Amino acid sequence: MALVAKLRFPLLEKKHSMLPRHVQRLGRDWITHWNGSQILALNSPVSSWMRWAGHYPPWASFPLPVSADFSANWRFPPFFGPWRQFQNSHWHLDNYTQSCCFHLANPSMKSEGEEPLTKKRKLSGQDDTAAPEQQTDLSNQKEVCCLSVAQNEEKHGSKKGTIKRHWEYYCQQSKTMKIAKNKGSDQSSTGSEATFDFTVMSYNILSQTLLEGNSHLYRHCRQRLLFWTYRFPNILQEIKELDADVLCLQEVQEDHYRTEIKSSLESLGYHCEYKMRTGRKPDGCAICFKTSKFSLISSNPVEFFRHDIPLLDRDNVGLVLLLQPRFHCKASAAICIANTHLLYNPRRGDIKLTQLAMLLAEIASVAPQKDGSFCPIIICGDFNSVPGSPLYRFIKEGKLNYEGLAIGKVSGQEQFPRGQRILSIPIWPQKLGISQNCVYEVKQQQKEENAGEKLETEKPDNTQEIVIASKKSSSKLRHHFKLSSVYSHYFPETGIPEVTTCHSRSAVTVDYIFYSAAKDDTADQPGAEDSSCGGLKLLGRLALVTEKDLWTVNGLPNENNSSDHLPLLAKFRLIER
User: Fold this and answer.
1) Distance of CA 542 to CAs 109, 180, 202, 515, Å?
2) Rounded distance, CA 431 to CA 450, Å?
3) Counting beta carbons within 10 angstroms of the beta carbon of residue 301, is it exposed (0 to 12), middle (13 to 18) or buried (19 or more)?
4) Which of 418-446 are b and which e, b meaning 16 or more Cβ less than 10 Å from the residue's Cβ?
5) Is 51 helix (H, G, I), strand (E, B) or coil?
6) What are the C-alpha distances in Å from 395 to residues 448, 477, 515, 542?
């Protein structure tokens, strides 16, 4: 039974002058509920069963005494002195103790002092009825809160706190995705020996530098879970278990890639290609493929920064690979794999669309076949745009009329966007060398390379030409690929959104796998040009989860998932024309 200890902080007694002034200023009694047999009394010297956690809440400049066996459910009572200041600090003992106890948080996150408004709003509107798996977790929460992982596995037979994701395979009869018990249960296999099946993963693994620079997004996490020495083994284990043939990774930190990531993946049979962000950014994008399944035809990095174009002043990058499948009937068969991480800023939709156009132009230059059609294409990445947004619709539909569109609405990241400036027509200047159809204008490129100083001397005339061209320019963007999304973004039974990223401020979908669908694929998009050579048939995908599911394991990152994004995984079959 919990004991109650009364703590006094006398202000005038000399024998307590050794206490920090911050403690003396509290000047009142307060009560804590203590799950143990020891009495916490700061009137006496700190005994051997106390230790310093070594962490500092925002309102204190001294470390707080914390028991090595302190309960994870401990909270200050509501009548504690400066409660509002304390509540606003988001201070939680789980964040400051170096305990190895396994913690399964309540989905409503009542252990937090103050919850982000987005989670309050979204979770309050959902039903309290949980799935059977969730009910089991919640019913056992009080019992297993301080059990170690080993004890928990012994008692329940499986590790608590894991996100349960299943494989879904396309069912030809019902035209829907169907849950499958194992990866091998292919619902659409044929007797042809010429088929080539492979899996592709897209995963933002969370750069350690970006994590530490945005610590306010991870206040819900225990401190020890955020160290790279803890995170990397978890990430590597996920990659091993999912065993994808192609990995498209974002936020791959350069020093970690050079010292650990590349060698670890090569030992698993992958060949790695990497493009670091420009400027002083420490991370980049990587595409890794199994050499037993593919050989490399070409690797084409894309830099979105252009020193001569003020619009393109950001350091994001992309990477486009052309791969040749092994053990295939046609020696000329190829698959184009692209990976990118677009700008985050919700108010700069003009930059996002331009970066996307540059990536599509590079794909259009890499993917053409001898007959003029495009080879099958897969585009992965963190697009920092939500489903249904103008940028998302442009990718899937192949066209976008942006006339009158505010730059803050392009990505759909904000419900009430702050960037209300209307997109200019055209969005990017002519000297970028990319047309409104998102292909390179070869003549314009050659003109830029050969003009040199001549452009500077003719600046007034050139400006006039650009103004005239802008009047004639259309506000319609197009691309020539027929792309579909692996995921549907909403659960059909409930309409609840799928989630690919979750931290203290938001839980949304921003990560995607787009692919050029074959004619008989159910995700075939009407209205797009049928210029692909054959295409890809989606055989299956690793199901996503809801925001409520993620908060039952304390969001992301957590004990077992060490990024603030979930890995996306799809299985394809190459279809030739």
Assistant:
1) 27, 10, 11, 16
2) 13
3) middle
4) ebeeebeebbbbbbbbbbbbbbbbeeeee
5) strand
6) 28, 10, 10, 22
Query: What letters, b where the CB count within 10 A reaches 16 and e where it falls short, cover 109-122?
Result: bebbbebbeebeeb
Tell me if residue 363 falls in helix, strand or coil.
helix
Radius of gyration of the CA atoms of the chain, in A: 27
Task: Provide the residue type at 274 as one letter.
Answer: Y
* Pick from 323, 328, 324, 304: nearest CA to 314: 304
**Joined tokens for residue 518:** 């074959």
Report DSSP state, residue 68: T
* Least confident residue range of 284-298, 311-325, 494-508, 512-526: 512-526
User: Would you call 59 helix, strand, or coil by DSSP?
Assistant: coil
Q: What is the DSSP string of 525-572?
A: PTTS---BSSEEEEEEEE--B-HHHHHTTTSSS-SS--SSBPPEEEEE
Residue 1 Cα distances to 37, 40, 78, angstroms: 9, 15, 21
Q: Any idea which of 18-22, 67-71, 110-114, 407-411 has the lowest mean pLDDT?
A: 110-114
Nearest to 411 by CA among 434, 431, 393, 435: 393
How would you classify the pairing of strands 377-382 and 335-341?
parallel
Q: DSSP character for 427?
A: S
- Centre a 10 Å sphere on the Cβ of residue 31 and count the other Cβ atoms it contains: 13
Predicted confidence (pLDDT) per residue in 374-427, tens digit: 999 999 999 999 999 999 999 999 999 999 999 999 999 998 887 689 999 999
pTM given for the model? 0.70
CA 244, 246, 251, 254: dihedral to nearest 10 degrees?
A: 110
Query: CB within 8 A of 402, min separation 6: which ones?
Result: 353, 390, 410, 423, 425, 427, 475, 476, 477
- Lookup result for tokens 């409520």: 548
What integer pLDDT is reported at residue 231 of this predicted model? Answer: 98
Give the phi and the psi of residue 535 in degrees, each rounded to 5: 145, -165
Instruction: Give CA–CA dist 65/53, Å, rounded.
Output: 6
> Residue 240, CB half-sphere, CA atoms under 13 Å: how many?
11
